Structure formats: structure tokens, C-alpha cells
């Protein structure tokens, strides 16, 4: 009985993975479009290439204020944030509220679905 239950669970996981992957892929593709429209003026998705804002390549999992070659505000350097889906979501919602004193002159992304898509795209940059 346990073996059969385990096999059924494994089949359910395997059967749902392609759909979840397809959804994640679609989400990341939409996020890339949004990135190009909303973020690209100030940020790049290329490693080591900063603009007005730091490169966002590898941002997921990175400690805030540490991208080499970018001059961060003291607020960002001292924020003690490690960027993950939750912290990026909060930051994109209202950058000035999440890290008071940061240099990003952007009001934020108000739509939760758009933030989710941008985060999905940023998660692919590694």
C-alpha cells in the first residue's frame, strides 16, 4: 500500500511539473517584457554592466548594496537585505518605503501580477 501511495504521489508530481514549468516560463517571458518597459532605462540584465542603477543579473540571492562597481546609498548598503521573491516584491511595491533613503527614483510597480512576473524573470538571471 505504501509503495502504491508513493508511486501515485511521484506520478502526480511528474504530471504537474510540465504545467508548472510552462506557467513559470510564461511568467518569466512576461516579466522580461515588463523589465524592458519598466526597468531597462536604469538597469541591465547583463552581469557586471551597471547603468544609473546596478545590474540586476544575479540579484536573487544577492545581499543588497553589493553589486561591484555601483555606488549605492548608505541606506541600501546598511539595509541588511538579501534579495529574494518576498523582499523584491516589497521593494518593487514601494522602494522608498521599503528602504528609506535609497537612491531609486521610482514610485513602484503597483500591480501584484506584474511584480510577480518581473521577479520570475529576475530569477532566471544567473
Short description:
With 126 residues, the protein is mainly α. 52% of the residues lie in helices and 0% in strands.
SS field, number of helical segments:
5
- Range of strand content: under 5%
Q: Could you tell me the number of beta strands?
A: 0
Give the overall silhouette: globular
CATH architecture: Orthogonal Bundle
Question: Number of domains in the coordinates?
Answer: 1
Major pleated sheet: none
CATH topology: Cytochrome Bc1 Complex, Chain D, domain 2
| Mean pLDDT over the full residue set | 88
Radius of gyration based on Cα positions: 18 Å
Percent of residues in helices comes to: 40-55%
Unreliable segments of 5+ consecutive residues: 5-21
- Order of SSEs: HHHHH
Q: What gap, in angstroms, lies between the N and C termini?
A: 42 Å
Highest-level CATH class: Mainly Alpha
In CATH, the homologous superfamily goes by the name Cytochrome c-like domain
Instruction: Report the structural category.
Output: mainly alpha
